[in-house]
Design brief:
With 258 residues, this protein is of the alpha/beta class. It has two domains: 111 residues, 3-Layer(aba) Sandwich (Cobalt-precorrin-4 Transmethylase, domain 1); 130 residues, Methyltransferase, Cobalt-precorrin-4 Transmethylase, Domain 2 (2-Layer Sandwich). It contains nine helices and twelve strands. The chain has a five-stranded parallel sheet, with helices on both faces. β7 and β8 form a beta hairpin.
Length: 258
């Protein structure tokens, strides 16, 4: 009797951008990745609505990180990705927003490459795009700013340092990720480098989600207004952008009827 041998099943990892939280903003390609996945490793800030879609046919594992708080170590996430793929499982590594923007993507890809595991990146809508849409603004505008900076409020060493002199110039626009805890630091550095105290600053909490909130302030009032707002969800900070008048009016009307 002839004996047959089955080749071992080969695993694969899809890095999927979950977008800002609204499940309607998921890409078709992202949903297809969920449907063929055996397991989904997801960040802490993924919305429940998206996790429900991701978990319809796959096992969910929370590997979330918290800024200045308890977190999975990056090396442990890398090791888990490799182990699951070596076992032959199809893995989705689900990251908030777009996986290529402040998503620690490179470390995980390098771990997979070292183990000879195949992978692919499925882009998502980053928080800056969703937040800009929520305040009715564009990230760039002729005559205002021909560039926009994507910055992080903190990195592995603590509060992140940037080119504050360039940011302090009139007309500068920046989208600041993970900026709530570093707001006072950012405010101080910009003022120290000559930024106008009246520069608009807008924070969008839970952009695109039903519980979205918009805080409109100025650089001068940033720290105090943010403290009073008591924002607990993920927030994107825009330096140099204020909500469009129509959005401001709609927000005020919503508050009156709340």
């Amino acid at each position: 009797m002839q004996q047959t041998h089955t080749a071992p099943k080969t695993g694969h990892v899809d890095f999927v951008g979950a977008g800002p939280g609204d499940p309607d903003l998921l890409t078709v390609k992202a949903v297809a990745a969920f449907d063929r996945a055996d397991v989904v490793l997801h960040d802490r800030l993924i919305s429940d609505a998206i996790l429900q879609i991701a978990g319809r046919s796959a096992r969910l594992i929370d590997v979330g990180k918290a800024g200045f708080g308890p977190s999975w170590r990056q090396e442990d996430i890398d090791a888990l990705l490799v182990r699951l793929a070596v076992e032959g499982q199809r893995v989705v590594r689900l990251k908030s927003g777009d996986a290529t923007v402040f998503g620690r993507l490179d470390e995980e890809i390098e771990a997979l490459d070292a183990a000879g595991i195949s992978w692919a990146i499925i882009p998502g809508i980053t928080a800056a795009s969703a937040a800009a849409a929520s305040i009715g603004q564009s990230l760039t505008r002729r005559g205002r700013n021909s560039s926009v900076r994507f910055l992080t409020g903190h990195d592995m060493q603590g509060f992140a340092d940037h080119d504050w002199t360039a940011l302090a110039r009139p007309g500068s626009v920046a989208a600041i990720y993970m900026g709530k805890k570093s707001a006072r630091f950012i405010q101080g550095r910009l003022l120290m480098h000559g930024a106008d105290r009246a520069t608009p600053v807008t924070l969008i909490e839970n952009a695109s989600r039903p519980d979205q909130r918009i805080l409109e302030t100025t650089l001068d009032r940033l720290a105090s207004d943010l403290s009073q707002a008591d924002m607990t969800g993920p927030a994107l900070m825009f330096y140099g952008l204020a909500p469009r008048a129509a959005v401001r009016a709609a927000t005020e009307l919503k508050k009156e009827h709340a």
